[in-house]
Amino acid sequence: MASYLRTSTTTVTTSPLNQSISFAEILSALHNHSQMITLNPLVISHVPAPTDNSETSVSTTYSITERISYLPFHLWDSEFTFTASFENTSSGLDTVTHAPAGVDLDSRWKVLSVGALLGRNDHKGCWLEETVKVTCSILLMPYVKSSMKGSHAELRRRLEDVLMSEQGH
After folding, report:
1. Distance in angstroms (rounded) separating the CA atoms of residues 141 and 101
2. What is the per-residue pLDDT across 47-68, written as a single tens digit (0 to 9) for each?
3. 12 by DSSP, 3-state: which?
4. Cα distance between residue 88 and residue 34, in whole Å
5. What's the predicted TM-score (pTM) here?
6. Which helix (H) or strand (E) holds 57?
């Protein structure tokens, strides 16, 4: 696709999490790739993808299938499969996604703790920050942004629900 038809946008979403959830619990959840993938409401299946990465690679690649609706009431749905690489970091998770139609996402999930930001050694009062850079056709961008905004908001809500249920709340 001609580069003049491609555009990029970056969104940053920061969400406070329940204070009873620890930094370590959030980090563990982010490092659970299968859980993070299935928490996305658009995903219908995923499997580890064969890669040509060397043995020293720190990322894991998955083949993910999603179902999206083009029209309300599921009058026109479509399924598509793409690859996404997941790399655990000391503060979260980095993902790189290559979807059909030249849609590329570069996502950074980061756990921020109020204590650490204030220079203290505790990790109480955590926030989840998601930074996503989307690159795609200028014609697709409104739909991609809208779809991503809704699905990622639901993913964050489901993630907090999982973390709270693991604590017995």
Report:
1. 11
2. 998 876 555 568 899 999 999 8
3. strand
4. 13
5. 0.87
6. none
